[in-house]
Amino acid sequence: MESLGHFNYWLAIVIIMIGFYGVIARRNLLKQVIALGLFQTGVFLFYVTMGVYRSPDGTRGVAPIWTDAAKTGPFDNPLPHVLMLTAIVVSVSTLAVAVAIIVNIQRKYGTIEEDEILEADKRDS
Amino acid sequence: MELVLPEAIHAHLPVLVVLLPLFGGLLALFTGLIQRGGGFVAWLWSAIITGLILVCAASMLFEVHTTGEAMVYRLGSWPEQYGIGYSVDALNGYVILVVAIIGFLSTIYAKDSVMAEIARDRHHLFYSVWLLAIAGLIGITVTADTFNIYVLLEISSLTVYTLVALGGDRDRRALVASLKYLILGSIGATFILLGIGYLLMLTGTLNMNDMHEQLVRMHQSGELANNRTVFVSFALLMVGLSLKMALFPLHLWLPNAYTYAPSAVTALVAATATKVGVYMTFRFVFTIYGGVYDSSADLYFLGLCACAGVVISSMAAIRQMNVKKVLAYSSVGQIAYIVLGFSLANESGVTASVIHIFNHALIKGGMFMAVGAVALRAGGTKIEDFKGIGRKMPLTMAAFTVGGCGLIGVPLTAGFISKWYLVVGAMDEGYWGIAFIVLLGGVLALVYIWRLVEIIWFGKPDDPTKQVREAPLSMLIPMWILIGASVAFGVDAGWTADSAHAAAELLLEGGP
């Protein structure tokens, strides 16, 4: 049961690893970048899971909003959530820069397949 | 060196060095509104901003050395456990000064180089991104908050990817190199983020000193014995940081990114970006995990990678047909020296690392500037473009040659000082093999530098009628300041050695 209790963490690691595999295995630049996005998303899930509070007797924390429940009972740690807001912004900007570069590669090479790009470079030199 | 700033500015210096380039970079965009000469205004603006940063950085290091205490700045006056704290001590004051010096000089240098290599209508964008990159690099070094490190790391990385991709106007391979850098860099940064996450789980805080205190407390109460979280966080951080500082064998993004980037960008990035990565590694290994987590086995492994890196990347440098690529592979080797130094985890070794951060920044910055001048005047950086160019651009090529001597580690150059400390550090631990590797690395550097020097001074140009002039003054002056400083600090290493020593002592307080 111990390992089932960590279900979310398992899921986060699985997503991270699927993304990581995609970055390495795919030869299409856009697919690599999509996989990179997945890779980062797994980390967000990891952080958000980390914030969840569960007391030893099993009561769950409530959302960290200024409500009656949160004033009296336990609440989830808002810090990791806030960090992930920033990290999502970072991830989106990374993808934006990546896609902008890929658009330029498509313009200059006429392809976004890594093998064809390598071949074109070999022809040049 | 007496720098007295008004009290009101003085207290805010740690945050000013980040805010100046951050807002300066945003404001630089508006120079695009100027119809004619907008590029020049953008350059002038960047030069003023980076000059101010240099004054701030020098004044901070001066203050830290005179008082012997860290300067602490709390953003929004929040206590450090909740808010973001910036702090400057003997170590990061030194690294900030390195970034500020290189930032200022390469901005001066960039004027003619950017004029020639970047399309006219993009100059304001170039300088805007340029200043943001400097903001990110300085931010990483000044902050004491681990998550802030991640954010600023991404700011500096994203801007550097963009700057590298701007080389695509001249050579389309820059685009592919930039995307490769982006993918590997993002993987590295995400690993760092995961590592910080595990640390946050363990300690419940993001502030470095607070983290360290929590870890020490847990260590003393025995909670850390066989704790897998601390092990996993350390491993994730090391992989991410090694990618960021291009430690062999995770250096694959570096050679192409440096080669195809615009010349000014290469000079800035080669001299600062990987150094800042090394600085982060110092912070994590010594300031956070120091005395808590026994990292000797991991450091031993890093040392092995570094030894392999010194030899293999120097051999790769010998085979390259593009001078920029020779220097890029040499950078991988030099980073390996720095890692080798701190993996020894003794005083001489860490001093060698810290001092080599400064020395290598001077030497490599100066050499890439010289290569950029050739790119401007001769139109390329291939080996053929360098044939016999010593007679046409004597001042530039003299700087290149003196810098090359520094890479080899010839006595009376700064490179010699670094290697001296490194060999002493290795001897202290009784590692004769490392001393041998350092000497072998010097010999290999001699081979790849001599190959270039021979072509430069004794080669016959393919096309003798080709007109090549000496580089403009705006390039020669920053280049020679860097190369001259590398010789000056090689002859009298008093100031650099003292500063590096103070930084090393600070790091080793907690033990490895």
Automatic annotation (TrEMBL), chain A:
Pfam families: Oxidored_q2 (PF00420)
UniProt entry tagged with the keyword Transmembrane helix: yes
Keywords in alphabetical order: Cell membrane, Membrane, Transmembrane, Transmembrane helix
Record-annotated membrane-spanning stretches: 6-24, 33-53, 82-103
InterPro entries, per database record: CPA3_antiporter_subunitC, NUOK/Mnh_C1-like
Compartments, record wording: Cell membrane
GO CC terms: plasma membrane
Topological relation to the membrane, as annotated: Multi-pass membrane protein
Keyword Cell membrane part of the UniProt annotation: yes
Family classification: Belongs to the CPA3 antiporters (TC 2.A.63) subunit C family.
Protein name: Na(+)/H(+) antiporter subunit C
Organism: Enhygromyxa salina
Gene name linked to the record: mrpC
From TrEMBL, chain B:
One GO BP annotation of this record: ATP synthesis coupled electron transport
Topology with respect to the bilayer: Multi-pass membrane protein
Annotated transmembrane regions: 12-33, 40-62, 82-105, 125-143, 149-167, 179-201, 230-250, 257-279, 299-319, 326-345, 357-376, 397-418, 430-450, 471-491
Cellular component GO terms held in the UniProt record: plasma membrane
Keyword Membrane among record annotations: yes
Record key words, sorted: Cell membrane, Membrane, Transmembrane, Transmembrane helix
Keyword Transmembrane helix attached: yes
GO MF terms, alphabetically ordered: NADH dehydrogenase (ubiquinone) activity
Subcellular location: Cell membrane; Membrane
Highest taxon, organism lineage: Bacteria
Domain NADH:quinone oxidoreductase/Mrp antiporter transmembrane: residue ranges: 145-444
Family note: Belongs to the CPA3 antiporters (TC 2.A.63) subunit D family.
Name assigned to this protein: Na(+)/H(+) antiporter subunit D
Gene label: mrpD
